[in-house]
C-alpha cells in the first residue's frame, strides 16, 4: 500500500531541515517552566508505575528523549526522518533510536509504559488522528501514560519554509477540547491538562494533556 502523502512530506521536510533544526530549536533546559514540570511529572508517573519503556514519538534529534533518560526513564526515540535519527544516534549513542511512523508503530500490544508525543502530531491531518491515537492505545500497557504536548487553535498552516529551508509539510492546529475528545474516543482518559498562551519562547497557544489507558477494559 502506498505511503500517505503527508508522511512523505514530513519525512522529506525534516530530512532537509535536520541540521538547521538543531541549531535553531532551544534544548529542553530552555523550555518554559510549566512544560518542564509536565515532563518531570510524566517521568515520575511512568517510573513509579514500572509498566515498560517510554517511546518518544517524533523524537527529532533526541534532545527530549535524552532529557527523559536523565530523569531516570527507560526511553527510546522514534522518528520518520532518517536524518533526524542519525543526528540523535550521533549525539546520544547510549540511547536507542529507530525510524518509524506513529501511524503504524513497530511495537507489540501493551508493550509501553508510556508514550511522549511532544509537538509531533500537528503535521498529522485530523482524519488520521483516530488511527494514530488507536496505535497509542494498542501499544500502551493497561495503566500506561501518554503525555501529549503541541500547538492548539483552529487553523491549517501551509508554510513554504521552515528553519530557513524549503518544506512541504502542513500543520493542523485543533482546539484542545477536540484533542481531548479524540483521545477519549481512542480509549485514553485525560487526567490533566495545561493550556498556555503565546509567550517569549512559543509564539502560539500551546497545551499539554496527560492521559492514561485504563487498567481494565
TrEMBL record:
One of its GO terms (biological process) is methylation. PANTHER family: TRANS-ACONITATE 2-METHYLTRANSFERASE (PTHR43861:SF1), TRANS-ACONITATE 2-METHYLTRANSFERASE-RELATED (PTHR43861). This is Methyltransferase domain-containing protein. Residues 54-144 form the Methyltransferase domain. Keywords: Methyltransferase, Transferase. InterPro entries: Methyltransf_25, SAM-dependent_MTases_sf. One of its GO terms (molecular function) is methyltransferase activity. Pfam families: Methyltransf_25. It comes from the Bacteria.
